[in-house]
Design a protein that fits this description.
The chain is α+β, with helices and mostly antiparallel strands and 81 residues long. It is built from two helices and four strands.
Length: 81
């Protein structure tokens, strides 16, 4: 699991107290089964109303060809609605 600063991300490890909002961010070029699996685990742990996906509209030939609308369309096919 990735670390923030010198401490593990406590929210993902389930040690957070109080209200938790999870922002799962990335390029998602394209959104794939691995991304969906992570999303599902976060939803199971924190609830659908607490998990949000963040990405940009930035495109770049080759490395990041998909714009926000295209990424959203692909992710919705994984039943993220």
């Amino acid at each position: 699991m990735k670390k923030l600063h010198n401490k593990p991300n406590r929210s993902i490890r389930g040690e957070a107290k109080g209200d938790v909002v999870v922002v799962y961010s990335g390029r998602f070029q394209p959104f794939h089964l691995g991304h969906y699996s992570t999303y599902k685990k976060l939803v199971q742990k924190f609830g659908k109303d607490k998990v949000f996906i963040g990405t940009s509209n930035k495109t770049q030939s080759g490395r990041s060809p998909l714009n926000f609308k295209e990424k959203k369309s692909i992710a919705i096919n994984f039943k993220l609605k």
